[in-house]
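Hi X.,

You mentioned you wanted examples for the new student's onboarding notes, showing what a folding record looks like when two proteins sit in one file. Here is a clean example. The first protein comes first, with its sequence line followed by its structure tokens.
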Amino acid sequence: MPNEKTVMTRDDALKQLNRITRERAFGWHVGSDQLIQAGLEALIAGVESPSLAMLAGLLRSEEPEAPTLFDQVLEELGLLFHPPADRRAAKWALAYWVAGQTADGSLDPAVGTHLIWADIAYDLGYPDELEPLVHCAHSLEVWEECWGVSVEELKGEAVEAAKQFLSKGSAGEAGGTTNCSFSPPGLVAR
């Protein structure tokens, strides 16, 4: 029996557009083909925007037009996002966004905590607020089967660390307690 792909709902399509706009705003590469595909999926899901059909119908030879049309669609839908101009504030905004994606299951916990560790915490000087997520990232990165704890348990702890980080509010209010209770050999939890 053939495997049928789940049809994307309108809300799923808007969530995907929102994710892609943030990825692009934070400097991650999103190819024109992905922008066109997201436009097509949104159109099929019932999202309405004057420029959406133009984006979804771009041919391979027209791919260079995709970023401009994608931004136009986002503007029409009220989804256009600009990160803070201040570099540190932008990194904090990215941390909250990645933690949110990790907490809600949109992003694998190992990937989300690694992004926070490698792309955010380093640039911010490893602030205490991000320490629990960095600790979880390190545990997931160096995990070995002999530890007696499963990767799934560590991922669950990473999701909880992300949720606690988000619940703390602004960066200035966040605390630095460790949520990943397991410390791999050679790593002491603070």
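Then the second protein repeats the pattern, sequence line and then tokens:
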Amino acid sequence: MPSQFEALCPPPQLLPGENIDHYHAVQAAIFRDLDPQSAIEWLLAIDIAELSWEMQRYRVLRHRLLNTYRQKAIEMTLRRIDLAGIDPDFQEVAEIYTIHNALDWQLDASAARDIEARLQSYGFDQHAISMEVYVQAREILSLFESLLSGAQLRRLTLLREINNLRHSNISDVAHVAGRKGQLRGPKFPRRAIVDDPLHGG
């Protein structure tokens, strides 16, 4: 970024765990593609880079959210197996046991393999677990879909603004060049003296 435009670019506001080098790489790639020239173009390019980073952030957070809900899905599926037909007197204890099993699935790789094998023996494979994940997370996933769609729409709007600005500048330059040509008037080549009949040509 040219030094005269550095004040237009605020310092990045990153969340814990986000990488400043990745942020600058995304920003630099967008600046190279857009190649902004004026202050207005730089402002638009900075906003486009920010929106692009936000979209990456939303996708990462959505993926982590699905992993969190996967534990909930495991817990719900275990509850269907372990609490079916259990004596009401033991239901509270069984639910606590189920919650602990779901936590073990998340923290202990060996326990996770055992639990997944047990679930599969009852017909709950990974696809069934994923379906339960989306059922559990459907409302929050709608929120992320709205955030992504909104950011994408704003980014497209800014890209159109840059294109419109550049087309407008090109039209202005062409208009000014045309007016200058009209003011000068047409140019006619001068005949050589040897061709002038008054000079014996």
